[in-house]
Amino acid sequence: MNDRTGRLIVVSNRLPIVVEREGGEWSARPGSGGLVTALAPILRGRGGIWIGWPGTSETPFLGDFLRRAGGEAGYDLRGVYLTAEEERAFYLGFCNEIVWPLFHDLLDRCNMDPSYWASYRAVNARFAEVVRASSEPGDIVWVHDYHLMGVARELREGSGSSVPVHFFLHIPFPPPDIFLKLPWRRQVLEDLLRYDSIGFQTQRDRHNFTHCLQALMDDATVRGKGRVITATHGPRSVRLGVFPISIDYDEFARESATEAVARHAWEIHSNLPERQLILGVDRLDYTKGIPHRLRAYRLALERHPDLIQKVSLVQVVVPSREDIPEYRALKAEIEGLVGEINGRFTQHGWVPIQYMFRGLDRGRLLGYYRTAEIALVTPLKDGMNLVAKEYCACSLEENGVLILSEFAGAAAQMRGGAILVNPYDTEGVGDAIHRAFRMDADERRARMRRLRQTCRNQDIFWWVGSFLRAAVSRDLGDFPPRGGEGPSRIAPEAEGRG
Ligand code: ADP
Ligand code: F6P
Fold this sequence. Notes:
498 residues; alpha/beta; 6-stranded parallel sheet; 43% helix; disordered C terminus; binds adenosine-5'-diphosphate; binds 6-O-phosphono-beta-D-fructofuranose
């Protein structure tokens, strides 16, 4: 990045890699989750900085390792190191036992342990310190997601920095009747108002936020309409924008057209002759509605005998947050349902559900996207859901049907081509599966074309461009790739050992 324009500094809880020790040596694998998929193509090759946690509390000394991994990707990686206790109280505790369930409207799953808040504050202060040490006047600091709502405040108060700081929330923002249950509700709103701009995924999220502001802060005002509005509280004005996040559509479509992916797609379907493949791909998370989906599939098999032997559900679950008891219980529930459904319906030569509990390598994941005739994306609530967009980008034959939850952020953009469902409505989802199964080729093509066009027009570069224009009157063109495109992604095997 040249000095005149400054650098783009991305700050998120996780770096785009997870560093692990295997047999005494350090290695890295790409992180899972939508945030990493979305942001990696933006920084790639542009020479900015990504600040985050390397995903291990085993060592605070990964500087050389991160320098090498960053060199591969074409931007700097700066580590923020958490102790084992901070991993427990900040990451697993405040972030994932309080904010995550609350912001997804699942109050019953919250563990409002009062001891977590101090750790949240302390870790946000540590992130702020690394931002301060890494940034220079002219840089654009862009903080991401619910783990780091307090970084702007810590930067202003703790280190007196005046560098502009922007924030994007990847998950939903809840309505007042849910948010007001948070014991630290006022502190969180005050912290968020210390940012210069806040981006939300959907109008609904921003609307919820402004309603919470009005409910809790008598003196806050909100002005304007359209993509960017302004909230004022005391002397501070904050821009509030709606920017639905997306994927690098061209790269997914290009990769999906490769020989290797075509071979995977062919292999997958050659094992399932004369059958439609229904695909579910999710991190292990109760917000994804996996048990609800399995029950809907079971009901569809009961009610529509023409599905027997003619469909197979492939459910991929990517391990996530297994140190939290709720996640372990969810895994057991999913596996119980899969066993029950397979035990009941399996016939010679046909198993109704193929279940995988692991991360797939990218070629295979794209093979599934490309070849599946139906995708079941039915979260109970989701900030965006990039799997839905990836499926469409890879559906090159345009014969895929997307069944999408109306409570995914993606529904706002994709309602035109998807079959929208209420994930709590078991009969409705079951009927949608049957409808998708019977949909003729013309309707499939017309719907998938619309979906692909939306994802192509509003891709990840459109997203970052909208943010930069609205927040700082800049464009992604102000941050050109340095010396070519850079590597297409961090390849763990190419990173060497620390
Ligand atoms: P979330 O951020 O809540 O996990 P998203 O649907 O937005 O949900 O993003 C999930 C991301 O994880 C997608 O970009 C997807 O490609 C990636 N992913 C999902 N399943 C796998 C898998 N089995 N192996 C590797 N990456 C995966
Ligand atoms: O996209 C939502 C998100 O929570 C990201 O912020 C996060 O990185 C991802 O899901 C995966 O979760 P985790 O970082 O807890 O493994």
